[in-house]
Design brief:
elongated, two-stranded antiparallel sheet, 370 residues, two-stranded antiparallel ribbon
């Protein structure tokens, strides 16, 4: 399936006219990638790397834990989208839900050892968490596939997928700021899928599309970049060539992200100078409409700022929910309110990635009867 930018109205922040700028932005050439609510969940027969053991979860208690199916509707807003805690959907039977869950997490159909008499959110959430906790990321092929489709071109889906499973405390901020794989790196923002794009605006466009679900049209193929002149960096060249409309509208959104990643060459090597001049990575982001302009100073600062934005929480939630629904053979989620409800809980709970998996599994989208 294709993810961002075609991810629904809640996630698409804006669509702007194509730029017809003077230069194609950037190239790194020469800079050389009966219910048991609350009880232990059942286990799967044949689950990869050990069957889920019935472990309980001490983290979140569900996307709709604040209010169950019988609760009164309470209007709230997240990132500008209204949502409520009320729900009246009929849940699918436990055997159906368990098959959906195994398809989502493992990418295959597994047979549960035991099942409760009826489906409840807490049972489904506990089953999701116990399945994750007792299976290594190699077994969780479904989560790996999600990462590959969310961040196309990454050579490390198993490494990024582990942030959703191995450590219950891993957050979106960890995913976008870790230097565990690349010195001075910023997690997935300095993954080869981003850096190999080379150009400043191309890098920014990738991040906007896949992390913030924002669509910016690509530049025309006819635009080319002249060689750098003495006393000029790629940034100064771009700023000089895109300072007026119609180019400025798009470049003011994409380029600050690319500027913040400017210390990284195509191959991921760290550089502080270009054309015998210092690289300026300070940038002001204007894409976070719900928080106003934000100044960042480098790639890690970019990752921290983006990870704590409601736009990133909303976009990731929609894409994981969309993937879970597709893998389970369910209709694609169409309600902005359902996505906002899950994203609000994800954000309020500290942006823990394993919690987001559970919230998706406990959602009406995943549990409702077809």
């Amino acid at each position: 399936m294709k993810f961002a930018p075609q991810v629904g109205s809640i996630a698409v922040i804006g669509l702007f006219a194509a730029c017809s700028g003077q230069y194609r932005v950037g190239s790194d050439a020469g800079n050389a990638g009966a219910s048991n609510e609350g009880g232990p969940p059942p286990s799967f027969a044949g689950a990869p790397s050990g069957a889920p053991s019935g472990a309980t979860d001490s983290g979140v208690s569900g996307a709709y834990a604040l209010a169950g199916a019988s609760s009164a509707s309470t209007g709230q807003a997240f990132c500008g989208t209204q949502w409520t805690t009320s729900s009246s959907v009929q849940f699918a039977p436990p055997d159906v839900v368990s098959q959906r869950l195994s398809a989502f997490l493992f990418g295959e159909s597994l047979v549960p050892h035991t099942l409760p008499a009826e489906t409840t959110r807490q049972w489904a959430g506990n089953l999701a968490v116990s399945s994750i906790s007792s299976s290594d990321i190699v077994g969780l092929r479904g989560l790996q596939r999600f990462v590959s489709e969310w961040w196309p071109g990454t050579p490390s889906p198993e490494i990024w997928g582990a942030y959703f499973s191995s450590d219950p405390g891993s957050t979106l901020n960890d995913l976008l700021t870790t230097d565990a794989l690349l010195p001075n790196g910023a997690g997935m923002l300095t993954d080869p899928a981003v850096l190999a794009r080379g150009g400043i605006s191309e890098r920014g466009n990738f991040v906007l599309g896949h992390l913030l679900c924002m669509e910016i049209p690509p530049e025309p193929d006819s635009i080319t970049e002249p060689p750098l002149k003495a006393g000029q960096t790629r940034r100064s060249q771009i700023e000089g060539g895109t300072a007026s409309q119609p180019c400025l509208t798009c470049h003011s959104l994409t380029d600050p992200i690319g500027y913040a990643l400017g210390n990284f060459a195509l191959d991921g090597s760290y550089q502080t100078r270009e054309n015998d001049l210092p690289i300026d990575t300070q940038a002001t982001l204007t894409v976070l409409r719900n928080s106003g302009p934000k100044t960042v100073f480098d790639a890690v600062g970019l990752g921290s700022t983006l990870s704590h934005s409601c736009e990133a929480a909303l976009c990731l939630t929609r894409q994981l929910l969309q993937y879970a629904a597709e893998s389970a053979g369910l209709p694609q989620p169409g309600s902005d309110q359902e996505v906002a409800a899950i994203a609000a809980q994800f954000s309020a709970g500290g942006l823990r990635l394993r919690d987001l998996v559970r919230l998706v599994v406990e959602s009406d989208v995943f549990l409702r009867e077809n």
